[in-house]
Amino acid sequence: MEVYEGYDYKTKEPIKIEVENGEIVSVEKSSYNGSCFIAPGLVDLQINGYKGFNFNRKELKESDVIAVTHLIWEQGVTTYFPTIVTNSDENILASLEVIATTCENNRTINKSIGGIHLEGPFLSEEDGPRGAHPLKYIKAPDWKLFCKWQEAAGGRIRIITLTPEWPGSIDFIKRCVRSGVTVSIGHTSANSEQIQEAIDAGASMSTHLGNAAHLLLPRHPNYIWDQLAADDLWSTIIADGFHLPQSVLKVFLKVKPEKCLLVSDATNFAGLEPGSYTSHIGGEVELNEAGRLYIRDNPKLLAGSAQSLLWCVNHLVNSGITSLENALEMASVKPMEALSVTAPNRIEKGKSADLILFERKDKEIKLVQTIKSGRPVFSKEQ
Ligand SMILES: [Zn+2]
Q: Locate the Amidohydrolase-related domain: which residues (predicted)?
């Protein structure tokens, strides 16, 4: 049996968590008087890579997937959804196969990968909504092709980001939802009716709402208002301090106090030192001291996210928009709730012992330990 103690992130009361075979068997009050808080492990629904590793790289290797898993354990993430973006059919298939094989060969990695997020290629062709997804591979939803990919992934595709503006989208969404895949609207230029039809067909999420959009939109209606107003949609947001201004973050959280989720959308540049790098899609990119990643020749344009989920939690709390407790939930139990009815990672008896222990210093969460299925997978050097 393992025992973990700290202050409950919600109640701030000292608690003792007992764990057996990876599961929480009891949560009780304790006399703990140390400096650590204890919260559910973080869950990242959208992550493309980390510290030089990229799930979308041609010739992705099993060791790359293992390396990313270890690196993000160090950032408090106990469950993540490696994100495969628009690419040639063969390259998508190859990445899915490698992730599936890695899961089959490694028990702990398998538990850490909650599923795969397929972001593309069924996205908008329009500049702006399309973002950096290569136009030549963008296409209409194709169920047969999706089934081939799902088979290669060993059934692990749990989230698909698509736009409902294509003919045939609604039937495709229904099939996805019926097969247990969460459909998230993103990289879209769909109109109000198409968005409503997608929701009626079972779409239940918005991908990085407010990003991957036209630079100029009609004041109303537009696809941001439509998605914000839809009570059935969870919104994932990139709260790294660069992708959305404070006012937008504040409004999103006010409109959807219970249904906002944090994602990192981290690229392979996340976790690297500031400097100049070459991106396979964006050409030359720059990561500055503040942590902003942009196109060198056009500094106004972001080149993706270079920050971890933990950074986003810190940013949201320090911006004063929400409490630490809520920011943590937006990045841990709520993402799991969005995918299923119950969060399997709440700090409760019978749930998986996926935990983080942390201290609060200089307005930052300083990670002390990450626990996956009851076992420490990261411990801060003493
Ligand atoms: Zn995207």
A: 37-374
**Cα 209 to ligand 1 centroid, rounded to whole Å:** 9
| Cβ burial 336-352 (10 Å sphere, 16+ → b, else e) | bbbbeeebbbbbeeebb
What are 244-260's pLDDT values in tens digits? 999 999 999 999 999 99
Residue type present at position 248: V
* The two three-digit tokens of residue 328, written as one number: 């943590």
Contact status, residue 53 vs residue 68, Cβ threshold 8 Å: yes
Question: What does the block give as tokens for 331?
Answer: 């990045």
The single-letter code of the amino acid at 381 is: E
Distance 263 CA to ligand 1 centre (A): 11
Domains of the chain: 1-39+347-382 (2.30.40.10), 42-344 (3.20.20.140)
Kindly report, residue by residue over 38-75, the tens digit of the pLDDT: 999 999 999 999 999 999 998 999 999 999 999 999 99
Q: Residue 294: enclosing H or E segment and its boundaries? A: strand 293-295
Sites in the chain below the pLDDT cut of 50:
none
Distance 266 CA to ligand 1 centre (A): 10
From CA 332, how far away is CA 81, in angstroms rounded?
A: 13
- pLDDT for position 341: 79
Give the Å distance between the CA of 131 and the centre of ligand 1: 7
Distance CA 350, CA 337 (A): 16
CA of 24 from ligand 1 middle (Å) equals 35
**String of DSSP letters for 254-291:** HH-SSSEEE---B-TTTTSPSEEEEETTTEEEEE-TTS
167 Cα: distance to centroid of ligand 1 (angstroms)? 21
